[in-house]
Amino acid sequence: MALKTEEMVLNMGPQHPSTHGVLRLQVELDGELVIGVRPYVGYLHRCFEKHAEAMTYPQVIPYVDRLDYLTAMNNELSYVNACEKLMGIEVPERVQYIRVIMAELNRIASHLIALGTYGLDIGAFTPFLYCFIDRERILSLFEMTCGARMLYNYIWIGGLSHDLHPDFVRLTREFTQQFRPHIVSLNNLLSYNKIFIERTANVGVLPLDVAVNYGITGPMLRASGMEWDLRKNEPYAVYDRFDFDIPVGKGTVGTVGDCWDRYFVRVLEMEQSVNIIEQALNQLPEGDVFSAIPKRVKPPEGTIYARTENPKGELGFFIVSNGSVNPYRVKVRPPSFINLAVIDAISKGCLVADLIAILGSIDIVLGEVDR
Amino acid sequence: MIFDTLSSFLGNEIIAGIIVACLPLFLVILPYAIAAVLAERKVSAYMQDRIGPNRTGFHGVLQPVADVVKLMLKEDIVASNVDKPLFNIAPLLVFTGSYAAFAAIPFTSIFIGTKLDLGLIYILAVSSFVVAGILMGGWSSNNKYSLIGAMRSAAQIISYEIPTFLVVVTIIIITGTTNLTVLSDYQTSYFWNWMILGGPSLGVVKFLLIPFMIVGFVIIYISTLAEVNRVPFDIPEAESELVAGFHTEYSGMKFAMFFLAEYANMFAVSALIATVFFGGYQSPFGYLGNLMGIKWLIPLEQLFWFSVKGLFFVFVQMWLRWTLPRLRVDQLMTVCWKYLIPFAFVNLLIVGLLVVL
């Protein structure tokens, strides 16, 4: 006689240690095998897009910070970049260089959290705290620059809120020098750990065609083997002046596009960010950072779509202006949201533990998923 | 021995029995658990470049006391739709399992709960008692995470008992005893006579045994790590997947029971390994008491050496916990069935042959 069996529906989240915030995953389980995953979003919805319509252009910047709150500098850069294109503002070189330095520092900070929490998802607690030590130093640099540690409101349309602190360049150089060995020790502790590789290699393989069809961007797309990075392919700010590589997933320990590749692409990207920061510090020109800030931000009628390479993927802003001081419409293309959509496609048939590994390797921030 | 003294002093065997039964709890387990909880937090803190608890008392030494007080004052939440009798018994059962093991652990040649002839088998048997409690707790909680955690736990603990037993059997073959006191005495008070270095018998066999003893030690260490659900085998309570596994729904003192049981179990298996492979309570370089002719010093020295050995293995367990990631449930089974059991079997065969020859 065959025993009657049934599938179990497990609601993972919104209160769960590994959903990286208030995400609810409705998981269908057959024993420990995952049959299907449905992500339910919206627990952190804050009406950003509607809110932006009631704000003037500069007033939107603090709200942009709160999209992906781990990469506020990159979000600001993206939004400000769109506004400046809309208004046709030429920004001084020094401002551009400082923006790049800040964006890359924030990229390192964001990747450190991604890697640290990924270790946490796999069960290694200690690398998480090692990552936070370095992140802490980056946050101190930001704090020194603009007084805020997470939500900066630093990059303004046409300029910056503050010039650099006199010690900033020296301290950042110190940081980049000391950070490189830390990447090596992170690799020794976690990336090349046998158990870690067992848990992540060949798990959640995302083939390139699926990735492109789902509109995946950022480290996830590169891990699947495509050399696509807006900093190289569609340079904005002054990224065309720096010499850096685009790391891609090579399937070193498993298949191209598995969780380990997604993890390791981020490690390699941190090294590239350090390269960019060092070059930018060497080339940093003198000048005034306030000169191009317009007295009144009132762009001409028109639309603009501008996108930049955020740590999580391509962040795009579509702005419609009707010639007033408020944007008529601000539409965000959030990388986390779009990357999350692929989870059902790549986690069918895996175990619950793999599902956590896959979700961690997507690296979402719910502030951006829900906006 | 303690029991006889007490019963003649009190004139009542039942009261004496109860007191003797409580002795290891108050003398050993509670102080050890308190120290181990603090040690775990401090060890993890120093490994992670943190300071750890340092507000309660000198360098935070009172932190575990504060924790215990907090747990005792906490509301005992029983979620709706739980199977109440099972839910209440489960923590007790888990704790009983790990507590009962302490009855046969020889701390010194004098202080031992009971000198069981089957001590070695007894410890392994009662510590697998824990599985029943975990299953009951997971099932009765009416929580999916608890259920998955309990199922994983049962599968894991039962599987990993096999390599543990196989290694223990090799020791029984060599020494011919399952009495832990006899086993400790057999390994005399010099470290080259310990089982890890082939035992006290001289000759070629001793040297031939050494590699197999080391393999056996590694196998038993890994499998006991899995039996007490520690990293990299902490799958039943895998925080990032199952919230807290089988004890997700427990709070207050019931949770504390699971917690205490885990730490008690950690020491129980460490003590077992120390006894089987590292001479138990025997000192590695002879006794100071013998040298100076002070007989009462010897048990104290034995207690010292036993604690050092046991706590060292507990420390290694903590060290691993804060270094390694966690295996997946199928990989865990692979490690057990495809690597540990075959190796343990081959080990057993060769050791058997060597002893016969």
List the helices and strands and how they pair.
The complex is a heterodimer of chains A (371) and B (357).
Chain A: E1 8-12, E2 24-30, E3 33-40, H1 48-53, H2 57-65, H3 72-87, H4 93-122, H5 126-146, E4 155-156, E5 159-160, H6 168-191, H7 194-200, H8 208-213, H9 219-223, H10 230-233, H11 259-283, E6 302-309, E7 314-321, E8 329-333, H12 335-340, H13 343-346, H14 352-362, H15 366-370
Helix pairs in contact in A: 2-3, 3-4, 4-5, 4-11, 4-14, 5-6, 6-11, 11-14
Chain B: H1 2-10, H2 13-47, H3 63-73, H4 84-101, H5 119-127, H6 129-140, H7 144-175, H8 180-186, H9 204-227, H10 239-242, H11 252-277, H12 288-292, H13 297-321, H14 329-356
Helix pairs in contact in B: 1-2, 2-13, 3-11, 4-5, 4-6, 4-11, 6-7, 7-9, 7-14, 9-11, 9-14, 11-13
How would you characterize this protein structure?
The complex is a heterodimer of chains A (371) and B (357). With 371 residues, chain A is α+β, with helices and mostly antiparallel strands. Chain A is built from 15 helices and 8 strands. In chain A, helix 2 packs antiparallel against helix 3 and helix 11 runs parallel beside helix 14. The radius of gyration of chain A is 21 Å and the shape is globular. The mean pLDDT of chain A is 86. Chain B is 69% helix and 0% strand. Chain B contains 14 helices and no strands. Chain B has helices at residues 2-10, 13-47, 63-73, 84-101, 119-127, 129-140, 144-175, 180-186, 204-227, 239-242, 252-277, 288-292, 297-321, 329-356. In chain B, helix 3 packs across helix 11 (252-277) and helix 9 packs antiparallel against helix 11 (252-277). The model of chain B has no long low-confidence stretch (mean pLDDT 80).
